[in-house]
């Protein structure tokens, strides 16, 4: 039996938030490597949601929530691409940029966990949520770097 998609997503949210909190502290070692590791978790997570969870929301009468979530992902991706081009040598500036991304991600996770997941819980049966869980895992795997699959 596949895992409920909501349980999978909540676990991944915790992981990503803890990576953000380490990166937003001053004096963190191996900052570039940790930032790459954060992106290796965050990007496949977002792509997996966009390909499976959000279309399912649209089929289930939750279109506005899905559209807003997609725009929040787009904003995070834009901010990440800006940070990709920033040097880590000025730590204060780098951390300020990262902190803005962290705030966006926290807001987005809050919307998913407080608004979207409770409605999914109401509208979808446990078989549907498990089935969505396995489709999500599959989409996420395809979006991962080959070495991490
Ligand atoms: Fe999301």
Could you explain how this protein is built, in words?
This protein has 149 residues and is mainly alpha-helical. It has a single domain, classed as Four Helix Bundle (Hemerythrin (Met), subunit A) (Up-down Bundle), CATH 1.20.120.520. It has helices spanning 5-23, 31-59, 63-84, 91-123, 126-143. Helix 1 (5-23) packs antiparallel against helix 4 (91-123) and helix 2 crosses helix 5. The longest helix has 33 residues, at 91-123. Fe (ii) ion binds at residues 46, 49, 69, 73, 108, 112.
Topology at a glance:
Blueprint lengths: L4 H19 L7 H29 L3 H22 L6 H33 L2 H18 L6
The structure holds fe (ii) ion.
Poorly predicted ranges? none
**Rg over C-alpha atoms, rounded to the nearest angstrom:** 16 Å
- Work out the count of structural domains: 1
Mean pLDDT: 96
Bound heterogens, unique: fe (ii) ion
CATH superfamily: nmb1532 protein domain like
Structural class: mainly alpha
Number of β-strand runs: 0
Overall 3D form: elongated
Oligomeric state of the chains? single chain
Our estimate of the beta-strand percent is under 5%
CATH topology-level name? Four Helix Bundle (Hemerythrin (Met), subunit A)
The CATH architecture would be Up-down Bundle
Percentage of residues in helical conformation: over 70%
Note the run of SSEs as H and E: HHHHH
């Amino acid at each position: 039996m596949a895992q409920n998609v909501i349980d999978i997503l909540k676990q991944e949210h915790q992981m990503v938030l803890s990576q953000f909190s380490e990166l937003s502290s001053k004096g963190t070692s191996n900052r570039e490597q940790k930032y790459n590791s954060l992106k290796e978790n965050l990007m496949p997570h977002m792509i997996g949601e966009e390909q499976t969870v959000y279309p399912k929301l649209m089929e289930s009468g939750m279109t506005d929530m899905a559209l807003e979530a997609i725009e929040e992902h787009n904003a995070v991706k834009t901010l990440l691409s800006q940070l990709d081009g920033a040097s880590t040598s000025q730590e204060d500036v780098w951390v300020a940029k990262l902190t803005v991304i962290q705030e966006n991600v926290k807001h987005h996770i809050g919307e998913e966990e407080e608004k979207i997941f409770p409605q999914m819980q109401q509208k979808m049966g446990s078989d549907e949520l498990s089935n969505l869980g396995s489709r999500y895992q599959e989409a996420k795997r395809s979006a991962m770097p080959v070495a991490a699959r």
